Amino acid sequence: MNIEGEETRKPIRLIAAVCSDMGIGKNGQLPWCLPKEFQFFIDTITAVSAPGKKNLLVWGRISWFSCPETVFPLANCLNLVLSRKMSPVPPHAHYLCKDFGSVIHLASKPPLCHIVETIWVLGGPEVYKESLEHPWCDLIYLTDIMADFDCNVFFPKFDRNVFRKQKRFSGVPDEIHEEHGITFQFQVFKKEA
Ligand SMILES: NC(=O)c1ccc[n+]([C@@H]2O[C@H](COP(=O)([O-])OP(=O)(O)OC[C@H]3O[C@@H](n4cnc5c(N)ncnc54)[C@H](OP(=O)(O)O)[C@@H]3O)[C@@H](O)[C@H]2O)c1
């Protein structure tokens, strides 16, 4: 129950795919085309435990506009775009926030706290960094793309003694996949209490 003024804690989870040097993007786009990896991303962020529950997806402005419009609407999701200067809320999005604190406020207080299950942070680096430092952040889903790509945007460094790589994680295939000659593996890092 949410007593007025109190925050209902929501898990904050990051999801990204990184290549050998932790690169995630080049000139506003993904440097690779890996449909199976992208499908895992979609399946993960749209999964909820019960009908009526929603995940709150947090997108930096550039990541938002780089996502193909064909993926929308995303089942069980509310899309929130972060921007300090943009207005109004762009098509397909539900919310626009000027800072990460407002995201937490929105998700953890009525009415959204009654339906939001997970806050999924979808990048880029600035919001990844801020969310990694938040006490409610418990998991990082990081696909390891075992190849070199020329990138100009990188996943932030995080402490691997705090976020520990899980040998197995429920719902996450642990085998190595291959697409277009590129191998990749889904990984989950869990924050140790
Ligand atoms: N490989 C992956 O898994 C993955 C995941 C995500 C993104 N990417 C890639 O990463 C690149 C995008 O990253 P990027 O760093 O260029 O851009 P971005 O983080 O998507 O967007 C940056 C903009 O978002 C807004 N923003 C971000 N954090 C904010 C905050 N805490 N508070 C308020 N506003 C905030 C600001 O918008 P305003 O300028 O409007 O104020 C900022 O200029 C693309 O190449 C994309 O493909 C890759």
Automatic annotation (TrEMBL):
Domain of life: Eukaryota
Keywords from the named record: NADP, One-carbon metabolism, Oxidoreductase
InterPro entries (alphabetical): DHFR, DHFR-like_dom_sf, DHFR_dom
BP GO terms, sorted: dihydrofolate metabolic process; folic acid metabolic process; one-carbon metabolic process; tetrahydrofolate biosynthetic process
PROSITE patterns in UniProt: DHFR_2 (PS51330)
Catalytic activity: (6S)-5,6,7,8-tetrahydrofolate + NADP(+) = 7,8-dihydrofolate + NADPH + H(+)
Domain DHFR: 11-191
This enzyme's EC code(s): 1.5.1.3
GO cellular component terms attached to this protein's record: mitochondrion
Pathway(s) where this gene product acts: Cofactor biosynthesis; tetrahydrofolate biosynthesis; 5,6,7,8-tetrahydrofolate from 7,8-dihydrofolate: step 1/1
UniProt KW Transport keyword: no
A single MF term (Gene Ontology): NADP binding
Sequence similarity: Belongs to the dihydrofolate reductase family.
UniProt-recorded name of the protein: dihydrofolate reductase
